[in-house]
Amino acid sequence: MLVIVRVARSQPGGDSVVTNPALIVTDSRVVSTASGDTAVKLSQDFAPPLDAWQALGEAVANLHVSEGGSVGYGSLFALRGLSNTPYFSDSAVTVYVADIPLSGGFTYPAGLFGFGSATVLPGPQGSRFGRATDGGVVLFEPTDGDRIASGVLIEGYGSFDSNLTALEAHTGDVGNMDAEFCADYDSRRGYINNGQIGVRTDDQANESSFGRLRIRPSPQSELTLELLQTRDRDGAEPLVPLGGPLYEVNRPGEGVTDIDSLAAAVKGSFAFPGATLTTVTSYTDWRMNPYQDLLVLPPALENLVRQTQKSWNEEVHLRSKATGCLQGDLGLWLSNESTENYVDRSLPGLFPIEVSGFEQNSRSSAVLGHATYEFGSDWSITTGLRAEEDERFFTREEQVPKEGLAYVASASNRAVLPRVAIGRRLQRDSHLEFAVAFGMRPGGFSSFTDNPGLTPFQAERSRAFSTGWDSSLGLHSLTIAARAFYIVVGDLQVERSYTATDYFVANAGRAHSDGFEVDINWTPSSPWKVTLDAGVDQTRLDAFTSPTSGLNESGNPIPGAPSYNAGVEATYRSARGWFAAGRLTAVGITHYDELSTSKYTQDSYALLGLRAGFSSGAWTFTLYGENLCKAGYYDLIVPGVNSGVPGAPRTFGSKVALKF
Description:
This protein has two helices and 41 strands. By secondary structure, the protein is mainly β. It has a single domain, classed as Maltoporin, Chain A. The strands form seven sheets. It has a 22-stranded antiparallel barrel. Strands 1-2-8-9-6-7 form a six-stranded mixed sheet, with helices on one face. A hairpin with a 2-residue loop joins strand 4 (76-79) and strand 5. The longest helix has 8 residues, at 2-9.
């Protein structure tokens, strides 16, 4: 990069640095397009404390997060019917935090502070992003602060002894550089009471920090350093037996979940005549030591898991300037990732049932790019292509039940993934788009089985067809975006405990997901804003045979994705500083096994949340309440242990923010 800086210094003036495309968020909190890209403003006034995933799930059609209660470990992130498996496969929904790509769903943080907006891009995005599978991409963007010296300090308190302290600060431009820093600490007592030993089972204490330094050696170049750190000290995963009380358990012991992560990125952006080159070198280090819980099924089952993952990534993009009728982007992606795991499962006081460990090294590389050509005054066509190779090297060693059992294997996945989108401007503020995109989620290996025939699973491949329309009416007081999609998936990855000793990923030969989405923003008058987002998603396993029983299980819904989600929110801001917001969110029926077993199915439910407060100068005071109607539901169901993670009960809280 230092060599490129010298070259860039010699370029003619007038070409400013172009970084990654900025998120354009209008005064509305949610902005959607015909393509399905949805930008969400993560408002500190209206959003729940630091829960970015809840804010996105409430605002983005057909996005649903089933949180496992132990940060991202065991959680499901579903978008348009495609989700990650809890433990073994790559995530279907890729996450970028600023310029840092996170590798697997279990590494995703529970909450993020200091990130002012997020954009959700559904469907295969392999021609636009280095790390991308088949479900979509979520981008969390820091609050830019308009490059002026500013900051905010937040204190919050609420139910279950919850407390929050958060700080965000920006230096503004200081010569040829600027910096920002944000940090938070939040904790609460557990929602679930263990009556046998008189303790709460899911206490949480989480902290995170993010820093970014930008240096501009010349008008044509910019160097950026980003650091992200998280630390989670939680109780055991809040699993309760299905069919019993949501917030009561009885067992002789509890556990912990300790997770630490560190991520860093160095980015260079260099402007040349007609094009801009960006390079991002990133590193992530994620450690879980340990994850420990005790479940009474019966009998009592104790789990101890230790896992680490390290990843080096390089992403390069050469973007042409937006001049004339043709614009393009050519990219390169390289990644080297290593994962190590140790698991000890036992019946306390009796005998161990599994002691094993695995190591997996993953190497991926891709050449990617897309180009947009505008012809006439109303038509455009975008073509994209990704050529990818993914290699996995896997070693598993077992001590119990078969001492000395070893499994060594490797796999290679290759794909050429095209994308075509055709757009037409119908009127000045109306746009129509039709797109076809191909995606792949690499195959891999399952560790929690000692049957070599069940260990490997194949790559998942998809073809996504979508069409959408967006329009702005009434002098932009009303915006509407409506979309429909149909996704065909081959070798869909399905994970669960198929037998008492075999927990692994199997492939469904064919599956599909189809549905529609609508997003509406309405400003009836200057103090009032109303938003509506709704998505319906019907999924099916078209061809699936159980790998253990041989039974045909076709025709059932894909596990982990709700049949619909919808939300309506009304906000009011007076000129005198008073504000209030109310939101009603509904989630459709969700099946958590491929058999659609009623016991492992969460029925539809609705949640009501209210916020209100006052803002005067630098001070903002907010009161909030969540799940005000005391809806009882499972946020996640784990069929293999006949247990579920209950959703949060009714909670209240307050926040005070001081801007400086």
